[in-house]
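Regression test case RT-17, inverse folding.

Input:
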């Protein structure tokens, strides 16, 4: 990791990927500002500077982060309300998912980016998703993460010549609390969590973040796609010939 990076901001740090990233950066000696809605969870991250706030609150984002000297932003916070389908999603679900996954993300970047540009250094890491690359049957969540993908790709162009790097990490299934928060129906939560595969652990994604940060200043790792071995996307599946009738 660049020895000029001294301070990091991690959103959604109260559990899962965000907490694993925050603890990894603290172990590397960075000062870490950790944000999430659950203050009691943030207090468990020894050494971090806690910021209890909701990324749906735009003004709170700027009050908390604008003016902070942040070298590394790991934008992890998000939600998956409405994951099981657009028709079954409430208007509030749509607002929550697009508001947190895109709006809160964009405002957080906007709050810390001017300082990075002024100092000529910085690294923005967005925790996206494979659902932002491939269709997986979730229009709301997929669209929010697809927007993050295009945000990062366009921001990379905007930042050329500034010395600020951008990375999008696109995980597949990770053993986190995302489905616990996504649904109000425990049976639906259980159905989505019952994959039978060896899911990624938050520490696996944190390692991918560290890999991108550890590259020499001349190197920008634009995208990392990381999935469980048993999970794959983007392929086509066909029935074996012998299972097709002669009339097919």
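Golden output:
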């Amino acid at each position: 990791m660049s020895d000029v990076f001294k301070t990091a901001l991690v959103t959604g740090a109260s559990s899962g990927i965000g907490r694993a990233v925050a603890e990894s950066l603290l172990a590397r000696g960075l000062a870490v500002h950790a944000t999430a809605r659950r203050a009691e969870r943030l207090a468990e991250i020894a050494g971090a500077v806690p910021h209890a706030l909701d990324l749906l609150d735009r003004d709170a984002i700027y009050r908390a982060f604008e003016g902070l000297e942040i070298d590394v932003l790991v934008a992890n916070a998000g939600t998956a309300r409405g994951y099981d389908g657009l028709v079954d999603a409430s208007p509030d679900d749509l607002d929550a998912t697009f508001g947190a996954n895109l709006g809160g993300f964009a405002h957080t970047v906007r709050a810390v980016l001017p300082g990075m540009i002024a100092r000529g250094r910085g690294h923005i890491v967005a925790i996206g998703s494979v659902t932002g690359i491939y269709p997986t049957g979730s229009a709301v969540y997929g669209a929010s993460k697809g927007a993050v993908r295009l945000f990062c790709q366009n921001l990379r162009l905007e930042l050329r010549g500034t010395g600020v790097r951008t990375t999008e990490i696109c995980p597949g299934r990770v053993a986190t609390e995302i489905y616990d928060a996504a649904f109000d129906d425990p049976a639906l939560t259980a159905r989505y969590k019952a994959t039978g595969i060896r899911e990624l652990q938050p520490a696996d994604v944190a390692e991918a973040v560290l890999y991108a940060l550890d590259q020499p200043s001349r190197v920008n790792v634009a995208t990392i796609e990381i999935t469980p071995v048993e999970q794959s996307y983007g392929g086509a599946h066909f029935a074996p010939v012998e299972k097709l009738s002669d009339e097919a």
